[in-house]
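ugh ok so i messed up the first submission bc i forgot one of the chains. this is the corrected input, ALL of the components this time, i swear. 327 residues overall. if the numbers dont match what u have on ur side tell me asap before i send this to the collaborators (the ones from the other lab, u know who)
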Amino acid sequence: MNATLTPHFDAAATTTCFDLKAALDRCCGDDDFLAEMIDLMQSSVVMQLAAMDAAIATGSASDLSEAAHAMKGVVSSMSTSRPYELAFDIELLSKSGHCDQAIAMLIPLRESLEQLVAETRHWQAQRQRLSTTIR
Amino acid sequence: MKILVVDDVGYTRHFHVRLLQKFGYDVVSAEGGPQALKILERDMSIDVVLTDLMMRDLDGVELYKHAIRMSRVLDGGQAAPPVFILMTALRPGGNSQQKDIEKLRMAKEIGFMDVLYKPIEADLLKSTLEHIKFARGKQIVDLTGATRRVQEAVDQLIAQKDLEASNTFIDILRGELDRLENASLEMTPAAG
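and heres the new structure output, hopefully the right one now
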């Protein structure tokens, strides 16, 4: 499995993964702080997907559960919708020994993370444009 | 106030460290329970431990159990134990496993001051820490001895039936009561 994210943000998508208002509130309204956390989230998501792939390759349910638990923590400050729920489900399924079901959920998880990353990149680009305009 | 953040997920650890720094606190961090114990052993100035529940090597409840057995001594005597706050994504009514819910229940019983559910709202974390800061900064005024001495003086005046001394003492007490009453009008709960 490939852990690299290839964002294909669909602007017409009816549901969003990135909850900007909640994320900004959690950063006390400080968009510099949010931008820093988005950078870290984007790299952490790739790391945790790689950890999940490694856990599957070695057949370790506990490693898969731990990586899913960490993924849940990584996305929780940006989104409590689909990526968070899927990571939580994978954590619980692998912890309870239902690894096949957990592995099957990796595809929708990966898709929702791609969407989350694309949406945060869209926000970063907008912010960059705004910053350039103001200068 | 100095806070130790304990979380084995780098992203959430960094997030909470940065958030607490924004609130103006002095913050240190540990990437797990064993490292947190080492920090607590050498740093007596830590007032609050904000720890995750589910961690690989030593979870939040086990960290608490080890930490409260630790002797923390300063030059001036025993250091006050830090206040522990638990962070968790578990929800008692959710679909978490029973043993995890049991761990959460145990955390509440053994002495964690509070349990905050992830993702933690910044305002809630801020107000929780302000409450702790107020409680820890407050100097306790021990009135036991002073009250006992007043009672003993009154007992003595009654026993001796000394009217002049009794009236003098009543005037002194009234004067002090007036002074305290006037001063208390300017006291607010936040001024402690």
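quick check: Chain A is about 75% helix and 0% strand. that seems consistent at least. The interface with chain B takes residues 22, 25-28, 30, 33, 36-37, 40-41, 44, 66, 69-70, 72-74, 76-77, 80, 88, 92, 95-96 of chain A (CB under 8 Å).
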